[in-house]
Amino acid sequence: MTSRRGFLAGAAAASLLATPALAQTVWRMPREYRPTLVRIGPGQIPGSIQVDSEGTWLYHILDEETARRYKVAVGEQGRQFRGTAYVGRKAEWPSWRPTASMIQLEPEVYGPFRGGLPGGHEMNPLGARALYLYQDGRDTLFRIHGTPQPWTMGQSFSSGCVRLINSHVEELYDQVPVGTPVIAA
Fold first, then answer.
1. Is there a contact between 73 and 153 (Cβ–Cβ < 8 Å)?
2. Is the pTM of this model over 0.85?
3. How far is CA 177 from CA 39, 116, 153, in A?
4. One GO MF term, please (predicted)?
């Protein structure tokens, strides 16, 4: 027999991860969220990725004067990646498994998915592509990835990762090699 709490937990998980196809047909991307070439100040490292967590922007630094800017969703306060890392691995249509800390913090939301979801699954929160962030040869468990929930852009929404609209992460993925430096502030 399903308890009221069990039902509500299942509904919360479903609303968090489900129905992306329906929502994507209704959501309209604001013009200012489109990837844009912008001028940057001096001192940026060409080829690097800079994440402005407060402003919810990701910048792929193209040269000493120009970056490609993408609107992103970032982790909730206290769950955001801050600091320096590098792209240690890349994956197309990556599989996903919630981390132990995600399950511990929100067991009703993430517990049902402890076994993970295959890449391409409509409820897989990593979306179309993932850039895995590493420090000193170790996976940080933070990602720059796509999302089946584009309406979350501009918000502090996720469990810590940086999310892009799927078509935007596909573009970035094609431009960024393994080893790319990532700086998040």
1. yes
2. no
3. 22, 26, 24
4. glycosyltransferase activity
Could you report the per-residue pLDDT of 66-76, keeping only the tens digit for each? 999 999 999 88
| Arch. (CATH architecture) of 4-184 | Beta Barrel (2.40)
161 included as an active-site residue = yes
Tokens for 70? 């993408």
Q: Given 3-state DSSP classes, what are the helix, strand and coil percentages for the chain, each rounded to the nearest 5?
A: 25, 30, 40
Q: Is 142 helix (H, G, I), strand (E, B) or coil?
A: strand
* Domains of the chain, residue spans: 4-184
Q: Which of 3-7, 66-70, 92-96 has the least mean pLDDT?
A: 3-7
| Residue of 184, 92, 182 whose CA lies nearest to 145 | 92
Question: Where residue 25 falls among pLDDT bands split at 50, 70, 90?
Answer: low
- Spacing of C-alpha 142 from chain mean position: 8
Q: Catalytic annotation on 121?
A: no
Could you give the CA distance from residue 83 to residue 93 in angstroms, rounded to a whole number?
26
Cβ atoms < 10 Å from Cβ of 179: 10
157 or 81: which leads in pLDDT = 81
Distance between terminal CA atoms of the chain? 47
State percent of the chain over pLDDT 70: 86
Kindly name the residue from 60, 121, 161, 168 that is annotated as catalytic. Answer: 161
